[in-house]
Amino acid sequence: MPRARFLVIRLLLVVACLALSVRSAPAQRPAPGPDPFAIPATDDGLPGTGPIRRYEWFQKLWRERRSAWAARRQQDRGAVVFLGDSITQSWGGGLGAAFPGVKVANRGISGDTTRGVLIRLQDDVLALDPAAVVLLIGTNDLEEGATPEMVAGNLELILAAMKRHNARMPILLCQVFPSSASMRRPADRIRAINARYLAAVKNDPQVIPLDTWRLFADANGDAPAAEFPDLLHPNEDGYARWAAALRPIFATLRLSETMPDSFAVEDGYESLFNGRDLTGWGYRPTSDEDKEAARKWQASDPSAAEWPFVTEAASFEGLAATPDTRFQAINGRLVVTTPPEGRKIQQLWTTREFPEDFTLRLEFRATPNADSGVYLRGRQLQVRDYRLAGPYKTLKLYKPQDWNQVEVIVQNGVARATCNGEPLETDLKVPATGPIGVEGDRGQVEYRRIRIKR
Questions:
Q1: How far apart are CA 299 and CA 114, in angstroms?
Q2: DSSP strand pairing (314-315 vs 327-330)
Q3: Mean pLDDT score of the chain, rounded to an integer?
Q4: Is the pLDDT of residue 330 over 50?
Q5: CATH label of the domain that carries residue 279
Q6: Backbone dihedral angles phi then psi of residue 344, each to the nearest 5 degrees
Q7: CATH number for the domain including 184?
Q8: Residues 233 and 279 in one domain
Q9: Is residue 397 part of a domain?
Q10: Residues 247 and 318 placed together within one structural domain of the fold
Q11: HSE on the CB side for 131, CA within 13 Å?
Q12: Which domain holds residue 439?
């Protein structure tokens, strides 16, 4: 055999053997990528500052809950997302029952911190395109030694990410609940966090703060054992109060209570509010007396409310809201919304005046520590969340965050007022004539079934 032919045959045999060896070798699997539901091993490159928990139990829980949520992402799209730690997680199946008719998704992880929420925000929350987000977070940061400045800084990053995702998505920011120094969560540190939270969202109309600290705090600023048996987590009664505080906001956001009020006015009464729009209501120029009161208050108190003066009368016939949306007609309710400024004095008046004796009836509902008022020919009757904001703190029949009935009888220039039948004022002097009005200061207060008999 010529040498050249021998070399060719030998080369072909070598190639055939190589091919057989490659075909028989087991396929090489690609190296596994990082677990998308696991806590990153280090803080390197992660947003925010402060603690990220990596205890073995927490890593297991974090992965289990997040992987389960990923499997139901499409099912939970468009829900109201409750985002937080064990307080949110422990609401469990009771969450949906607390808000019938509202699609909700629980995204609480026991033990989580503000930085942990920041890391998982996109996949666990924003990917759902929520109708709204209820955020309660920060207590575990304190246990891990974070400063209030760190916690508030992470909150600002969380809010910024939400706003980038959807600049119209409502964000309900719950103040950190009270706890106890024995739980490494002293009252002064929680107050410091909440003060920074409020400063971070001041003048931001997309974020609605809710005073869930005052809602629960005892005289020492700690969690009451009757509602927080371990001084950290609410029991059934505590969750019921939290739900009641949220429901008025949900109604204003049109997430619930969407049917018109079917109330029929009693014989002899006429309605002052039609439930659909602000017909019959408007702004009046600020009185000289109020201007002077505002200047004195703001000069002596750094925390005094903003008080813009009205220079020209305005009527809102046929309009569902004032131009700044502070006063809105929503499904039978005249809503005085939470001001982005934190506190802001504004007044809405009937376009008519009432010189005759009259009986005024209405119902109101207030969020925790909310402050409003009803004007009787210009004289104010305080309408507030009386339990927290006073001045009538001893009322036995007042129903916090629920509807309460007010009746005012004006005879011969003197008003007598009751709430659910209990006296508020028995000798309130009022001017000879003037309009009926409602005021906004802080928090949200709703009025409905406003009617008068003359």
A1: 37
A2: unpaired
A3: 94
A4: yes
A5: 2.60.120.560
A6: -160, 120
A7: 3.40.50.1110
A8: no
A9: yes
A10: no
A11: 14
A12: 270-453
Provide the number of structural domains found in the chain.
2
DSSP state of 127: G
User: pLDDT class for 93, splitting at 50, 70, 90?
Assistant: confident
Banded model confidence at residue 454, pLDDT cuts 50, 70, 90: very high
45 CB-contact burial (10 Å; exposed 0-12 / middle 13-18 / buried 19+):
exposed
The domain boundary residue, chosen from 220, 252, 284: 252
- CB proximity list for 278: less than 8 A, separation 6 or greater: 316, 317, 319, 320, 321, 322, 327, 329, 334, 348
Condensed to tens digits (0 to 9), the pLDDT of residues 33-85 reads: 678 899 999 999 999 999 999 999 999 999 999 999 999 999 999 999 999 99
Residue 82 pairs in a beta bridge with 106, 134
What residues does 232 pair with on adjacent strands? none
On the CB side of 309, CA atoms within 13 Å amount to 11
What is the reported pLDDT for 218?
Answer: 98
Residues 286 and 387 in one domain: yes
Report the chain's C-alpha Rg in angstroms. 30
Report which of 407, 436, 402 is spatially closest to residue 422, judged by C-alpha positions: 407
**56-71 helix and 114-124 helix, angle to the nearest 10 degrees:** 20
Rounded CA gap, 6 and 390, in Å? 108
pTM (predicted TM-score): 0.92
Over the stretch 18-36, which tens digit does the pLDDT of each residue have?
A: 444 444 444 555 555 678 8
φ/ψ region of 50 (left if φ > 0, alpha if ψ in -120 to 50, else beta) reads left
Helix (H) and strand (E) counts in the chain: 12, 19
